[in-house]
From TrEMBL:
Protein name (Swiss-Prot/TrEMBL): Protein phosphatase, Mg2+/Mn2+ dependent 1J
GO terms under cellular component: mitochondrion
Domain PPM-type phosphatase: 1-206
Recorded name of the encoding gene: PPM1J
Molecular functions (GO terms): [pyruvate dehydrogenase (acetyl-transferring)]-phosphatase activity
InterPro entries the UniProt entry points to: PP2C, PPM-type-like_dom_sf, PPM-type_phosphatase-like_dom
């Protein structure tokens, strides 16, 4: 029902804005993206890069401006816009600025949400059909598949007419994302770090006998 809006998935939109309004980048950032941070010793050399119009990579000769910090840096969950924020859509934060700088981050953050319409009347649903609405704290450490496995495991352990099954599922998802407290901090079963963000989960039954809203 949704997809993540991250510096990586919205790279071209962000780069286009930086290209059209270079004043937003000041003298500190470049809208171009490189596979890794360009070093001064690479001036004049040919290095892979991509801009707002490219889905693939090409070569360019490194110039002095290319040594600036990239508008988008990092990969996956560690990707950041202007080395500051890991999301690209949101409300508020009008005064958010780059650390040790006067450059505002807000112009790169869109307030327009993605809207998906799901017509419940077009499909038949059973008590195990649910919509999981969760904050970053859940999805930072879980894939869609991980959550689906927990949904199947928890709901199958309850009777279809038991309304507490949905509360139990929400609790299981929250506790699973937090992990177990150990000497090294909160850890998941695979020993990776548990979520350190807010974890809020809503379990929304989509209908069928035994469902509760």
């Amino acid at each position: 029902m949704s997809r993540e809006f991250t510096p990586e998935t919205e790279r071209q939109r962000l780069q286009l804005l930086g290209f059209l309004k270079p004043e937003l980048l000041g003298s500190e950032f470049t809208h171009l993206q490189f596979p890794r941070r360009v070093q001064p010793k690479e001036l004049g050399q040919r290095v892979l890069y991509r801009d707002q119009s490219m889905t693939g990579w090409a070569y360019k000769k490194i110039e002095l401006e290319d040594l600036r910090f990239p508008l988008i840096c990092g990969e996956g969950k560690k990707a950041r816009v202007m080395a500051t924020i890991g999301v690209t859509r949101g409300l508020g934060d009008h005064n958010l600025k780059v650390c040790s700088s006067t450059l505002p981050v807000k112009p790169f953050l869109s307030c327009f949400p993605e809207v998906q319409v799901y017509d419940l009347t077009q499909y038949e649903h059973c008590p195990d059909d649910v919509l999981i609405l969760g904050t970053d704290g859940l999805w930072d450490v879980n894939s869609d598949k991980d959550v689906a496995v927990t949904v199947d495991k928890v709901l199958s352990s309850y009777e279809p007419n038991d309304p507490s099954r949905y509360t139990a599922l929400a609790q299981a998802l929250v506790l699973g994302a937090r992990g177990i407290s150990r000497e090294q901090g909160w850890r998941l079963p695979n020993n990776k770090m548990g979520s350190v963000d807010d974890i809020s989960v809503f379990v929304i039954p989509l209908g069928g006998p035994g469902s509760y809203t």
